[in-house]
Structure formats: structure tokens, C-alpha cells
Q: What sequence folds into this?
């Protein structure tokens, strides 16, 4: 099982003149859980609906397993979809909801119900088979929606923010359910979300989108640790940005603090932006080499300790350290910040594209 | 903890309760009493009922009524459903205008449709003569069962159309898309998903149509000829010059009320039991079709709307034509009809507007208060009041008229023949609609808004008047315009209660038709239609909406 999806230079134009996606290409690998992640309005839903056929494709083509699907109507594409609002049919009980897709495929009744019962077991809803949707919680409805979409053994499974209507705890539980089941059945899955944590937790690969353009595609780890540009760096996780200059392969922060870097490209420009995540700082006593800052306040969160600090020029930054038995640094203390050089990311101040070497 | 409310509310509740006891309960009780009274001995008797059910002549009318009503309701449901689906699912040119046309055709009194269809398909009807000369046949025109069904179907489908449109709007498009992604084709999707989901709405609205059609007497009176329905017999029993037996008529009133009561509760039960709470994030978007299906969709939609509007069009056109003999219109333009009606009874038009306005004021003031008290000041008194105000909903108009005549013939409340009795009957009949819609509006306003005002030092009455009332006003005003349109087209109770001095437009249309003065009838009803259309446009303008809720 598992098919490849090839998105080849597709364009979406709404109402004749509103270009939302302009020449987007992407390859989705067989059996992977591929996530489209991006801010609201960036075109994730639009792209997803082009894959399943609810949206027309104005230019370019989408192929599944090498076959162009542009002109195949949705009901013959054999793709399953899980909707944000579940879209469970309110007039059918759980069993009939899940059986619906098999019924349209004219599967004999006995076989149909056998299969439905199997899937309901898989999503742990077999005890609810005779309930009506109105008697189910949001999480349970979402399981039904998932079961209904995968029972037809679709070539592709599409999910548009399937967890956004659930409360925080259920969201975590359900994303594990989705990940487990997806891995078990191995259907190529395209998952849309604007929640980065969810994307990191669930995906095999993530495509970060902005303004209808894919900014970067990669594994969660790679995207987090080596963002391709400043947008991705700022969108995934938290980054403190600082201006710096590159001299002889070292970063010069301009306050007497220079860090030799082994990760920069040979042709890195002079003016750069350095993105440092809160956990990529080391706090040193005042006077040691580093960026001089003043501690403004601190928050103790158990596992970690957050410091909010200010640079001389007034820039505010956040620093996170693992909590230990030492005293918390009092507000107003002046300290020096060093950076973990292997981890930080550096971007061209002009183009805002990463200047970190491939593979570093 | 029980909160202590200001006693003003109790006084108001008691006042309104008293009004409803005098103007609803008492008249009803009078009819009930008469239906089982033996006038000679003054004793209790069921003779009137046994007489009704013992004679085939009478029971046949019940059978006829059920027959026309069931057939007309089924056809209306089918038409309404198809029209709603086509206009919501597919892009239809001019759908906003079509929507208004459908509403207009619904708002005109059914009997006008009957009389217009006689002009077209009656013995000497335009279409009848055309068919007969074309095919050399002797088609006698459409009367009786077929005629009544035709008129009621075309007149009633808009109600179902409006309800189903509302249901389709609350159906989230993702349900359609889910079905499609699961492999359903269009037919499977419509029969398996859309139809079952709107079916509760169809049933509920079909029962409303059923009640309306069952109790209407104007249409079968005009176009029924030999085909007697129950309301016709009721009217004749009461108004007939030959055999009028008011005790027997009272029994008929009781029978028809029991029937409508049954369907009222059936409707309520259906509406509660078989409904899915749906709310659409993204309603269905009208789709484009390929040329041939698109042409067929337009053909069906426009044909049905044209048929529904044909009575209105006929009436308006004939109002400007000269008659050679009664009912035979020439192609000569004239304003005679208007000149005649304006010189004849100068009171008709002022009466209509004046009574309508007075009734609307009563409806709004009392309706809003009842709704407010029933929602916010729940007590035994207010819930009794709430139930009582729903009673007129199940009383057919002609029955209410008869009730009033029995109840208010003698002092201390000798109202027969006055304007007051007409205004009160109009107000009582249309009140339930305003109460229902106001109740819905109030339920959506959070009580804490008013509590905030009280906590800031306003009195309860003041906070009602200055906080809740303004928030309700836009909803109430739009509701009032709709009530106004239904008030001025009311016939069945006014026809029982009117005198020459209190004649209104609908009554005039009816009496002119009965007298075969079709030109005058057309002129009267054109004025009525014009008023309705203008009011409707005003409604759309004020509310910014493109549909109405009924
Ligand atoms: N049917 C439509 N007609 C016209 N414009 C549309 C339509 N659907 C979406 N758009 C526009 O296309 C852009 C992308 O919308 P889309 O729904 O794909 O965003 P999204 O990334 O899914 O956002 P969100 O996270 O808020 O769901 C938006 O600017 C939106 O206004
Ligand atoms: Mg979206």
C-alpha cells in the first residue's frame, strides 16, 4: 500500500483573478504522513482541496501513482478525507456512518459490517457502534470520521485541521491515535494544521507554507534545527534574532564578542541575522566574553527556568535553561550570554535565506 | 435561589391573561357549550355530533377535505423540496428575484388564486377556450377536486420551499463533501444525505400546510362547485340563508378544531423528535452546471414560479380590462374598475390599513410582553398565558369568527359589527407568530445584560425598556412587517364579522367575486397585492435580508 503524490507546478485562481497558489510543486512519498503547516490564509486548505478534487486546478497537474487526477471527479478518486468539523452524518448511527463509503462501493452487507467492526475496533469505538452522533463527544466523533475515511482503503488520506475543535488534552491524545493508525495502515496522508507543535509531533515530513509558497520541506527535526529562512525560523519555535557581522568565518556581535563558526557557507555575506533559540544560550558571569545583558525577570516552570533579559540597546530576549539546584539569578543582575555555536542559525540580512552549510 | 421580581410583572401578566380569557377562552367555551346544548330543553346533548357522523352527506365532506388536503400537501411538499434544492444547489439566474416572487405568491390569500384560475381554466377561462378551439374538444374547465388541489398546491409550496431553504442553509457543505469523498455520486448524495437531513423540516412544514389547507374555505367555495369540503359546509351552516342551525355549526367548529389540534401536536412532536441540530460553518455554494442540465434546471424553476405567479399576473392584468359580460374580459384598456371601487365604498381601503395597523400595534405590544414574560419571568401565571396565546394558532379563522359572533353579540361586550371586533380577531389570529419569533429573539439575549443594568441602578421596567427592548427591536420590526402582510390578507374570520362599514380589501374581493363582479374584484386585489409587495420590499430593505422566516 501507499502511493506517491506528485504536485507539479499547480496554480489556483479564485474568481478569475485572485491567485492564491502560483506554480507550486511538491513530491509526497508513499506511505508518509506529510504535513502542510503555515499561518492562517496561506493556502493549505486550498491545496488540500485541490488534491481531493473539491477545488479545480487552474494550471499544472496533480498525479497519484503516476496517474493525472485533474479531471477525475472526487467520488472516483478514492481518497478519504477527515474534516475539521468531523462532518459525521447526523442522521446515521456510528456503524452506518462508517459503512457509508463501503455502501457506495456496493460491498455486500455481511462483508461490509465485518469490515466496519474491524475498523471500529482499531479506533477503539466498537462499543459505540449503535450510537447516534449527537450522543458522542467531539473526540469520539473525530474517531468515527477517521474510521469512515480509512475503511474504504483510500489511496490517499487527507486531513484538514482535524484536531482544532478539540480541547488541548484530547488534541494530544487524538494526534497519537492518528499517528498510530496511520503508521499501522500505511496510507499516504496529507495533514493540514497551523499548530506547529502538532506538526512536529505527528509528521514524517513537514512543508512550511507562507503566502501560497512552500518555504521548506523536511523532517520535523531538520525544520526545527535548520530552518531554510527567517520565516521558517520564526514560525517554528521561538527565536531571538540578532544582527551580526561575518569576519574570517567568525560571527562578530559587535560588543567584543566573537564566535568562530564551523557551520557557515564559504560565501556567507558580511551582514547577517543570527537566530538563537532560548535554549541555545549559556549564561556566564558578568565580565566573561559574551553579549552583556541585564536580567529583567524570571519564570520558574519546573523543568525549565525562563529568564527575560535586555541588551544594552534595549532589545528583549528570552533565555531558557534547565532548572537545577542553584539559586535563581535575581532581577537586575548583569550577566554575559554565550551562544551554542553548532546550533544557532544564520541568515543573509538581505535575502533572509539561511547561510548555514548543507549537512551542518 | 428564587429571585424576587417587581410586582409590576405580575400585574402585567394577570392583565394579559385576563385579555386572553375574555377574547380566546370565553369565545371558545361558548362554542363548546353550544355544541353540546339542546336549545329546546337546555340540557346536555351529543345529538349534533351523532347527526354529523350519522349522515353520509356530512361525513363525505370530511373525506373530501382529507382527500384534497393530503393530495395538495403532497404536491406542495414535492414542489417546495425540488424548488429549494434546485435554487440552493445550482446557480440559477435571478434567484433573488425568483425568491421574492415565490414569497409574493404565498402571501396572497388562497381564494384569489382560486378565482384567478377560474378566469384561466374555468368554464369560460382563457386557456380553456384556447384549448377547446385548438383541439375541438369540450373541456369543461377545472373545478372540484382538481381545481382545489391545483390552487392549494401552487399556493402552499412556497411555505415548504422557505422552510427547506432554511434547512439547506444550515446544512454544512462538508457533509456533502464527505459523502463525495466516500464515493457517492449525485443521486446517492441527494437521496442518502440531503433528503434524510431535510425530511424533518419537510414533514414539519407540510403539517403546517396541511392545517392551513384543511381549514381554508374560500378556495373550495369558489372553485369546488359540487365538491363540498368540511369548511364549506361549516360556513354554509352558519351563514346559509336556508338552513342555519347555529348549534349544529358549533359542533362542526368543535370537530374541525379537534382535527387541527391533532395535527398541531403531531407537528410539534415531529419538529422536536426528528430534528438534527445543524449549523453550517460553510453552507452549500450554488454550483455551475453543464449547459443541458442548466437549461433543465432553469426551465423547471421558472415554470413553477410562473405558474405560482400566474394568478397575481392575471388579476393585475384583468383589473385594467373592460368586461363584456361578467367574467369575459375584452382586450380594451380601462380604469373603470378602479373608478367604480373608489366611488362605491370609500371606506374599504382606509379600513384595511387602519385595522391592519391597529392589529399590528396590539400584536407587537402584547406579543413582545408575552414572550418576555414567558422567557424571563417564568411562573405558573406566565406559562398559562404562554399556552393560551398559542390556542388561536389551531383555531381556523372561520371558527374564530363564529366564536366571536357567539360571544360578543350581547352586552356587556356587544362588539358585533364594530371595527373593534375585527381588529381583535386579526390580532388574536396573528399573535402566535409574533410571540414565537419574539421568544426566539429574547432567548438569544443573555439575561446578564439586563442584570448588569439593574446592578447599575436601573429599575426592572427601565432596564427592560432601555436594554432588552432596543436589542430586540430590529427582529420585532421585521416580524411586524410580515405580520402586517398576513393581517391585511386575512379573509376567513373577517368574512364572518364584517358589516358594510367595516369591510376590508380581502372581504371586498371575496364579495365581488361571489357577485360575479370580476373587474372590481381584480381591482381590489391588485391594490392588496401592491400593498403586500411594497411591504415586502420594505422588509427586505430594512432587514437587508433576501428571505423571510415564517
Ligand atoms: N472559495 C474561495 N473563494 C475565494 N477566495 C478564497 C476561497 N477559499 C479561500 N480563499 C482565499 O484563499 C486564501 C487561502 O485560503 P485557505 O483556506 O487555503 O487558507 P488556509 O491556509 O487553509 O488558512 P486557515 O489556516 O485559516 O484554514 C485566503 O486568502 C482565502 O481568502
Ligand atoms: Mg484551512
A:
Amino acid at each position: 500500500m501507499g502511493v506517491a503524490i506528485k504536485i507539479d507546478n499547480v496554480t489556483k485562481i479564485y474568481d478569475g483573478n485572485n491567485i492564491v497558489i502560483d506554480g507550486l510543486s511538491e513530491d509526497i512519498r508513499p506511505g508518509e504522513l506529510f504535513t502542510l503547516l503555515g499561518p492562517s490564509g496561506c493556502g493549505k486548505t486550498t491545496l488540500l482541496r485541490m488534491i481531493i478534487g473539491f477545488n479545480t486546478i487552474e494550471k499544472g497537474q496533480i498525479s497519484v501513482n503516476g496517474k493525472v487526477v485533474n479531471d477525475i471527479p472526487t467520488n472516483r478518486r478514492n481518497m478519504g478525507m477527515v474534516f475539521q468539523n468531523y462532518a459525521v452524518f447526523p442522521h446515521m448511527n456510528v456503524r452506518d456512518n462508517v459503512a457509508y463509503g463501503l455502501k457506495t462501493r456496493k460491498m455486500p452487507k455481511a462483508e461490509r459490517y465485518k469490515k466496519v467492526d474491524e475498523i471500529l475496533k482499531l479506533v477503539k469505538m466498537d462499543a459505540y457502534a449503535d450510537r447516534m452522533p449527537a450522543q458522542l463527544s467531539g473526540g469520539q466523533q473525530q474517531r468515527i470520521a477517521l474510521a469512515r475515511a480509512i475503511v474504504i482503503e483510500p489511496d490517499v488520506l487527507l486531513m484538514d485541521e482535524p484536531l482544532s475543535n478539540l480541547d488541548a488534552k484530547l488534541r494530544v491524545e487524538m494526534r497519537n491515535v492518528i499517528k498510530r493508525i496511520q503508521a499501522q495502515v500505511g496510507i499516504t496522508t496529507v495533514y493540514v494544521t497551523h499548530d506547529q507543535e502538532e506538526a512536529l509531533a505527528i509528521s514524517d515530513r513537514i512543508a512550511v507554507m507562507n503566502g501560497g509558497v512552500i518555504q521548506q520541506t523536511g523532517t520535523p527535526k531538520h525544520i526545527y534545527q535548520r530552518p531554510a529562512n527567517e520565516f521558517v525560523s520564526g514560525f517554528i519555535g521561538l527565536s531571538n534574532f540578532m544582527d551580526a557581522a561575518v569576519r574570517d568565518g567568525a560571527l562578530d556581535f559587535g560588543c567584543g564578542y566573537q564566535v568562530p563558526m564551523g557551520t557557515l557557507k564559504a560565501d556567507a555575506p558580511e551582514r547577517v541575522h543570527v537566530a538563537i533559540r532560548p535554549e541555545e544560550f549559556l549564561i556566564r558571569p558578568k565580565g566573561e566574553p559574551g553579549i552583556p545583558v541585564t536580567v529583567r525577570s524570571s519564570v520558574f516552570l519546573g523543568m525549565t527556568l525562563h529568564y527575560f533579559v535586555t541588551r544594552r540597546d534595549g532589545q528583549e530576549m528570552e533565555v531558557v535553561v534547565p532548572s537545577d539546584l542553584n539559586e535563581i539569578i535575581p532581577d537586575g543582575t548583569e550577566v554575559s550570554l554565550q551562544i551554542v555555536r553548532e546550533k544557532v542559525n544564520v541568515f543573509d540580512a538581505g535575502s533572509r535565506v539561511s547561510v548555514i552549510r548543507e549537512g551542518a | 435561589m428564587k429571585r424576587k421580581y417587581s410586582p409590576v410583572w405580575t400585574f402585567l401578566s394577570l392583565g394579559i391573561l385576563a385579555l386572553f380569557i375574555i377574547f380566546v377562552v370565553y369565545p371558545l367555551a361558548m362554542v363548546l357549550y353550544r355544541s353540546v346544548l339542546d336549545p329546546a330543553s337546555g340540557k346536555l346533548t351529543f345529538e349534533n355530533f351523532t347527526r354529523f357522523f350519522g349522515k353520509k352527506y356530512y361525513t363525505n365532506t370530511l373525506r373530501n377535505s382529507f382527500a384534497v388536503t393530503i393530495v395538495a400537501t403532497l404536491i406542495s411538499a414535492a414542489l417546495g423540496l425540488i424548488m429549494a434544492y434546485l435554487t440552493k444547489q445550482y446557480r440559477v439566474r435571478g434567484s433573488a428575484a425568483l425568491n421574492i416572487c415565490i414569497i409574493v405568491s404565498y402571501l396572497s390569500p388562497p381564494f384569489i388564486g382560486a378565482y384567478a384560475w377560474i378566469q384561466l381554466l374555468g368554464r369560460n377561462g382563457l386557456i380553456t377556450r384556447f384549448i377547446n378551439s385548438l383541439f375541438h374538444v369540450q373541456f369543461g374547465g377545472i373545478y372540484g377536486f382538481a381545481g382545489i388541489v391545483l390552487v392549494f398546491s401552487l399556493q402552499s409550496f412556497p411555505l415548504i420551499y422557505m422552510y427547506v431553504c432554511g434547512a439547506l442553509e444550515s446544512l454544512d457543505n462538508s457533509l456533502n463533501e464527505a459523502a463525495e469523498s466516500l464515493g457517492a455520486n449525485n443521486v446517492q448524495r441527494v437521496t442518502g444525505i440531503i433528503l434524510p437531513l431535510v425530511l424533518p423540516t419537510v414533514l414539519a412544514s407540510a403539517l403546517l400546510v396541511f392545517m392551513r389547507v384543511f381549514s381554508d374555505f374560500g378556495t373550495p367555495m369558489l372553485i369546488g362547485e359540487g365538491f363540498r369540503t368540511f369548511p364549506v359546509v361549516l360556513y354554509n351552516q352558519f351563514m346559509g340563508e336556508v338552513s342555519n342551525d347555529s348549534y349544529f355549526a358549533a359542533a362542526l367548529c368543535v370537530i374541525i378544531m379537534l382535527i387541527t389540534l391533532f395535527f398541531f401536536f403531531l407537528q410539534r412532536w415531529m419538529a422536536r423528535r426528528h430534528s438534527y441540530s445543524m449549523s453550517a460553518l460553510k453552507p452549500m455554494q450554488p454550483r455551475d452546471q453543464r449547459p443541458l442540465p442548466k437549461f433543465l434546471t432553469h426551465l423547471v424553476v421558472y415554470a413553477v414560479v410562473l405558474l405560482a405567479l400566474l394568478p397575481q399576473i392575471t388579476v393585475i392584468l384583468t383589473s385594467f380590462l373592460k368586461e363584456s359580460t361578467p367574467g369575459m374580459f375584452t382586450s380594451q384598456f380601462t380604469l373603470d374598475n378602479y373608478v367604480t371601487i373608489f366611488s362605491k365604498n370609500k371606506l374599504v381601503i382606509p379600513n384595511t390599513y387602519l385595522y391592519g395597523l391597529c392589529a399590528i400595534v396590539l400584536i407587537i405590544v402584547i406579543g413582545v410582553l408575552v414572550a418576555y414574560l414567558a422567557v424571563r419571568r417564568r411562573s405558573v401565571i406566565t406559562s398559562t398565558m404562554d399556552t393560551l396565546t398559542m390556542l388561536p394558532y389551531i383555531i381556523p379563522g372561520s371558527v374564530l369568527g363564529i366564536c366571536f359572533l357567539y360571544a360578543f353579540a350581547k352586552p356587556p361586550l356587544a362588539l358585533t359589527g364594530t371595527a373593534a371586533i375585527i381588529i381583535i380577531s386579526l390580532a388574536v389570529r396573528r399573535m402566535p407568530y409574533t410571540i414565537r419569533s419574539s421568544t426566539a429573539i429574547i432567548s438569544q439575549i443573555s439575561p446578564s445584560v439586563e442584570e448588569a443594568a439593574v446592578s447599575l441602578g436601573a429599575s426592572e421596567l427601565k432596564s427592560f425598556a432601555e436594554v432588552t427592548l432596543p436589542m430586540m427591536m430590529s427582529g420585532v420590526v421585521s416580524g411586524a412587517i410580515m405580520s402586517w402582510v398576513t393581517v391585511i390578507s386575512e379573509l376567513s374570520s373577517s368574512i364572518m364579522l364584517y358589516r358594510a362599514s367595516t369591510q376590508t380589501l380581502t372581504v371586498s374581493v371575496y364579495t365581488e367575486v361571489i357577485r360575479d363582479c370580476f373587474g372590481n374584484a381584480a381591482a381590489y386585489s391588485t391594490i392588496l397585492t401592491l400593498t403586500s409587495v411594497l411591504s415586502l420590499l420594505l422588509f427586505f430593505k430594512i432587514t437587508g435580508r433576501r428571505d423571510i422566516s415564517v
Summary: The domain at 5-230 of chain A is CATH 3.40.50.300 (Rossmann fold). The longest helix of chain A spans residues 168-185.
